[in-house]
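ligand=magnesium ion
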Amino acid sequence: MLTHLKHPIFETVKKAAKQLDQDVYVVGGFVRDALLQRPCKDIDFVTVGSGIELAKAVAQQLKGKPEVNYFKNFGTAHIHQDTWDFEFVGARKESYQRNSRKPIVEEGTLQDDQNRRDFTINALAISLNYDTYGELVDPFGGVEDLHNGILRTPLDPEVTFSDDPLRMMRAVRFASQLGFHIEDKTYEGIKRTSKRLSIISQERIIDEVNKIVLSEKPSIGFKLLFNTRLLHQFFPEMVALQGVEERNGQRHKDNFYHTLQVLDNVAEYSNDLWLRWSAIMHDIAKPNTKDFNDKEGWTFHGHEFVGSKMTKRIFRRLKLPLNDRMKYVAKMVLLHLRPIALTKEIVTDSAVRRLIFDAGEDIDDLMLLSKCDITSKNERKVERFLKNLQLVEQKIKDVEERDRIRNFQPPVSGDEIMKLFGLKPSREVGMIKSALKDAVLDGVIKNNRDEAINFVLNKGKELGLTLPHSDN
Ligand code: ATP
Ligand code: MG
C-alpha cells in the first residue's frame, strides 16, 4: 500500500496532523484509482477534527504557501498546487430529511464518514497516522469489490440512495466508466428509488451524464439508465425512441438501441463530447414524425428538421450549453441524412459542393456520424453503404481541392454589390447575393472574382438595375 503514497504531500499531511493531534486518512477516489492504477489528480483527506485547520497547517509547509479556499458551512477546504487538487474535510456524520438535499451534519468518526460514502470502492481509506501509516481501512470489503468489479453501497441501498439520489447516477456512471457490475440489491435499490432523482439539480445530473457519454462504451450506461428508469426522470425524448411497432407485417427498427449502437460506433473513433451528443440526438424526432402508409411502410419524414429544432429545447432543459456547441449538434442532426442520401443518386459535383457548403468546417465529423449511422445486421448491405460513402468522401476531397467551398466566402461581397449599383441594403442585394452563391455551388461559374463580377453585373441587369454614371 505504501507504494501508492509517493507524492510528498502525504508526508506533509502526516506531520501537520500530528502537530494538531488529529487523525487523518486519504480517502475515496484517490485510493480507488491508485488500486486500479488509474491516473488521479485529486486527493481527498479526511481528518477527525477540523479539515480547515489541517488544510491551513498543510499549506504553511508547502512550497509557495498556496492559498487555502474553504467553505466554513461545509467544513471543507481546498488547496490547488501545480496540477494537483487537495481536499480536506472533517469526518462527518450525516443524516438527511426526505425531500431535502440539505443534510444535517455533525462531527463524526472515520467510520461515520465511511458510512456516508456512496460505494464500498469509494469508502476505502489509508491511514496517514504515525503508528498505522499506510494501513488500509476497509470496513465494507471495498478491495474485494474492486477486485471483482462490483458496485455496492456500504449501507442499505435505499438509505444511501434516498440520502443523496445523485448516487444512483454515480452508480451508473462508474459502471459505464469502469465496466463494473452493479450488485443486485444495489441495482434493485436504484430501481425502487429512481423517482427521487427529481430533487437533484439538473446541473449535477448532467455532469454524470456527460461522464457516461465520454466513457469507452456509453451504451452500457444508457441501458442501465433506461432499465432503472433514471433516464425517464430527465430525458423522456430518448426513452420514447425505444420500442418497435408492427403493421401489416412490417416492423420498424428500435430507435433506442439503434441510437446506442451509433453512439458506441462514434465513441470508437472520437472522444469529442459534442460529436457523441450528435449521435444521441440524431434520430430524436423519430417518434414525433413516425407514420405508416401502404406504399412506403414506416416513414419518419422530416425527422432531421424536427430533431434539429428540438435540440435547443432539450439542451436548455438538460442544462447543456446553449452556445456554438449546441448549434453544432443541431447542424449535425439536420444534416445527418445528407451523405447517405447522396449515395442514392448519381453524385453530382453540385450536390457535393452544397453538402460541403452546408457542413462547412464540420464536414469530416458529419461523414463520420454518417458512417456510424449504418447499423444494419445485413453485412452485405453495410458493406455496400460503406463503399458508397467512401465514394462520396473521395468526391468531397476532389471537389474541395478544386473549388475550396469549405470556408466559402462569396467572391463578391454584399457591400461591393451595393457600391456597384449604388444601392442601399435592400431585397435586390439579397437576391443577387443568393444567386451568386447558387451559381458557384451549382458550378455555373467558377469560384473566382472575374467570373463573379460578370455574373453580378448580368444579374443586376436582369433585375433592371443600372450602373451609376461615372463622371470620368
Ligand atoms: P471522479 O473524481 O472520477 O468524479 P470520485 O469518486 O473521485 O470520482 P469525487 O467527486 O472526486 O468523485 O469524490 C471523492 C469521494 O467523495 C468519492 O470517492 C466518494 O467517497 C465521495 N463522494 C463523492 N460524491 C459523493 C456522493 N454524492 N455521495 C457519497 N459520497 C460521495
Ligand atoms: Mg475524484
